[in-house]
Specification:
Blueprint (H helix, E strand, L loop, with lengths): L1 H13 L15 H6 L5 H9 L2 E5 L5 E5 L2 H9 L4 E2 L2 H11 L8 H11 L5 H26 L4 E5 H17 L13 H10 L7 H12 L10 H21 L14 H11 L6 H32 L1 H18 L5 H5 L7 H13 L5 E6 L3 E4 L11 E4 L4 E5 L8 H4 L39 H18 E5 L6 E5 L5 E5 L10 E6 L1
Parallel strand pairs: 2-8
Antiparallel strand pairs: 1-2, 3-5, 4-12, 5-8, 6-7, 9-12, 10-11
The structure holds protoporphyrin IX containing FE.
The site of protoporphyrin IX containing FE (HEM) has 22 residues, from α13 and α18.
Length: about 500
């Protein structure tokens, strides 16, 4: 009864906000939104209703879409008022165990403080040789695939997913995941979790989702393939962590790999902090998950964009050629990462434009735990004042991919165009909150801890691949759509072959 009462109050409170007519009184708009490729429905709604509007979850539960930059910054920075929704926290702790990803308040701050040293700039510099080795391995693999052929089609998405998983596992806990094989292997469990179960859109599945979103605690009781995969994954990673953690292999030579997470946690344990192996495993699984999906997808989509924009591809390649002609060697880690680097400024520009347009996370969600007033930069039509009052429990979605990063008020009328040159024009960095005016890495105390790591991976992989390969669309499968899948990441599927799952075929040819 209490839930129903809160439900009605929230509908009443926000009922005058603009928004699309609800698609179904039972299922709301969420199921349609999930089915629509990125760049379609969400952007259409923003164009029609402005940055702040209402859509509905199942049983008419209102969801506030907050694409207003000032409002989003307020929500993301006030972590004592705004928490992740209970359903998200339940899923995260069920999948990974109690980690930084599912924690709030003091516990979150404490867990984050523990992990910070593994992601500072010295750590990233220390692990950079491993990232280069992995990029060279990818290059060698593509060269093998080419054999004596002039060009060949490769699934870029699968290759990058493998790269990104190894990048986190080999640098953070000294283990190479891509060599694990078999139906219960770590690699397989990750693939299952990130793509989700085959999407059967049945009434039973929809009903289960609506009920679970109202009563997240049911998740612990109800059977689900995601839960089984996550349990297997935790058990497998537990075995690996035991080897390095309990058996004390941290200081041994681990085949050119590093164990930054295990090192920083075990050091803190020695200094008296209460950290168990299970804590370490939970942090590792969570990091592997959020740290690999995101990077693999943003680089994959960027290569897809290069395939369709030969001019951008050639300009970027020429920058590397000029660099090498001037220095006699390709860019090192320091060259790639130097800020304001005049000699590699187009690389910086394509990276920022990819982070703007190819954002792999659709949205971040929060719920106020007490009543609050959100300040807005753009007033809502028909309402007085530049603010919005929200009740405790109101789901707020901050749309990143198709929201703030695509707002013409911030980015100008050519916002839909992939145009790296906009980053070479003056004033870009003053456009809004976050890195370069983007909310791609979030904002506030929960902003992405792996941002530096992700930027290093992007530059290392892109410089290695673009220097060595021409990239073209695949003539047989030219149309790729990007969908918001089970794990909240945006992933590619071939148009007309969606049932074949995540795939990004591109043609490569040796330079
Ligand atoms: C292009 C790549 C990436 C993007 C776009 C991205 C995006 C984000 C965003 C938007 C958030 C904030 C979520 C929220 O506020 O609810 C976040 C948090 C996080 N990211 Fe990333 N991320 C990327 C790469 C990485 C990498 C490489 C790692 C680690 C190896 C990582 C680890 C994390 C962690 C642990 C959090 C949670 C931080 C916290 O709760 O304090 N991410 N990321």
């Amino acid at each position: 009864v209490l839930k129903l009462y809160q439900h009605v109050i929230r509908i009443h409170d926000l009922s005058d906000l603009p928004g699309p007519p609800v698609a179904s009184y039972i299922w709301g708009d969420i199921f349609n939104l999930k089915k629509a490729p990125a760049g379609t429905l969400w952007r259409e709604w923003t164009k029609k209703y402005g940055p702040t509007f209402i859509i509905h979850e199942g049983l008419m539960k209102p969801m506030l879409i907050l694409g207003d930059a000032k409002g989003a910054t307020h929500v993301l920075n006030n972590t004592s008022i705004y928490w992740k929704p209970e359903i998200d926290r339940s899923i995260l702790s069920l999948w990974f165990g109690e980690s930084m990803l599912s924690a709030e308040g003091q516990i979150h701050a404490e867990r984050r403080r523990r992990l910070n040293p593994a992601f500072n700039s010295q750590s990233i510099k220390q692990i950079a040789p491993i990232l280069f080795d992995l990029a060279f391995r990818l290059e060698a693999n593509w060269t093998d695939r080419l054999g004596s052929a002039k060009s060949v089609v490769v699934d870029v998405s699968g290759a990058l997913q493998g790269y990104a998983l190894d990048a986190v596992s080999m640098t953070m806990f000294a283990h190479c995941i891509s060599t694990s094989e078999g139906p219960n292997s770590v690699k397989e469990m990750f693939k299952n979790l990130s793509e989700g179960p085959p999407s059967e859109d049945t009434i039973v599945n929809r009903l289960a989702r609506v009920i679970v979103s109202m009563y997240p605690r049911l998740l612990a009781i109800l059977p689900s393939p995601m839960k089984t995969w996550a349990t297997t994954l935790r058990a497998e990673l537990g075995k690996i962590a035991t080897e390095v953690w309990d058996v004390g292999k941290l200081n041994e030579d681990v085949g050119g790999m590093d164990a930054r997470i295990l090192e920083v946690l075990s050091q803190q344990k020695k200094d008296g902090a209460k950290i168990s192996k299970d804590d370490a495993v939970a942090e590792i699984v969570g990091l592997l998950f959020v740290g690999s999906e995101t990077v693999a997808n943003v680089i994959g989509e960027f290569l897809h964009e290069l395939a369709h924009h030969p001019r951008i591809q050639q300009t970027l390649r020429q920058e590397f050629v000029d660099f090498e002609a001037q220095h006699g060697f390709p860019p090192s880690f320091n060259d790639l990462m130097a800020s304001g680097n005049e000699r590699l400024k187009y690389l910086d520009a394509v990276m920022m434009e990819s982070l703007r347009c190819k954002m792999p996370v659709m949205d971040v969600q929060r719920v106020p735990i007490v009543e609050d007033i959100i300040p807005l930069s753009t007033p809502i039509p028909g309402r007085n004042g530049n603010f919005l009052r929200v009740q405790p429990g109101q789901i707020i979605s901050i749309p990143l991919r198709d929201g703030i990063n695509f707002d013409p008020r911030i980015w100008g009328e050519d916002v839909e165009e992939f145009r790296p040159e906009r980053w070479l024009e003056p004033g870009t960095s003053e456009r809004g909150p976050g890195l370069g005016g983007l909310l791609t890495f979030g904002d506030g105390p929960k902003t992405c801890i792996g941002r530096g790591f992700a930027l290093a991976e992007f530059k290392i992989v892109v410089s290695t691949l673009v220097r060595n390969f021409y990239i073209y669309p695949s003539e047989d499968e030219p149309d790729i759509d990007f969908y918001h899948l089970g794990s909240n990441a945006v992933k590619p599927k071939v148009r007309g072959k969606e049932k074949e799952g995540v795939k990004l075929p591109l043609r490569i040819q040796r330079v």
